[in-house]
Fold this protein.
Amino acid sequence: MMHRRGTTACAALAVLVACALISEQAVLAGEVELTLVRYAARDTQVMEKYPDENFGTLPLIRVTSYHSGWEGGGDGRSRGLFAFDISGIPTQATVTGAHLELYQTDGIIYPDGFSVYAALGDWTEYGVNWDTQPDAGLYVGHLPNAILEYLVLDSTALASVAQQWIDGVRSNDGIKVQFVDEYHFGNPNGVRGDTFASRESMEWPHARLTLTVEVDAACLADLNGNGVVDQYDLGILLGWYGLGDGGDVDRDGDTDQNDLGILLSVYGQTCE
Ligand SMILES: [Ca+2]
Ligand SMILES: [Ca+2]
Ligand SMILES: [Ca+2]
């Protein structure tokens, strides 16, 4: 029975190997580089003016200085909180890069950009308010300005934080975004704050985190999780070929020649 199954698998394999050989998927030294994009799984603003109110369902997130009122009135600071679901990222992953992107929606920009921190403390999207907001932890970088497009932060510090989230040594409390100078007194033309799309926005893209990770190819290809890349993993992959993500070795959402190429390159190897 085992022999017959193997023969069948090989017959299908003969056709597919040719495809795999022309694949451009990089398989270097047993490691595969993956690009993983995660959109905000929870996000909200907290407002000093409304210290016990929650804004988790709003389609926008304001980040402002204390002088956020019209004509520079002291309406209080606003800050943004964003968190990303990192489940499904292989625990063996080494994070080599992190890009945080927030979509600016109001077309009027505060020229100095924003400070980004790892949030330090648990919070919930529909519960957190100014009084209960998590502290600003490790500073991970400066988010430069942009108008009606993504503001992009490329941060090795954020990559380190994301690594700690994946490794479970830091609670995934997301990130906190604040005005660079929270007591900046802007001119009357609105340069005291900025507006970003929240995940409730239907009109704009919203916050996303792109991680570049390197993972042991054998661990990715061990689809059934038994510690070795073997005929069962190959069977799973072929069963899903072209049909869905059940054999998605490279985590790009489908099962295709790239996945097969990686699996074959590490066939027989163990996931350490
Ligand atoms: Ca929200
Ligand atoms: Ca296996
Ligand atoms: Ca794939």
Summary: The first helix runs from residue 2 to 21.
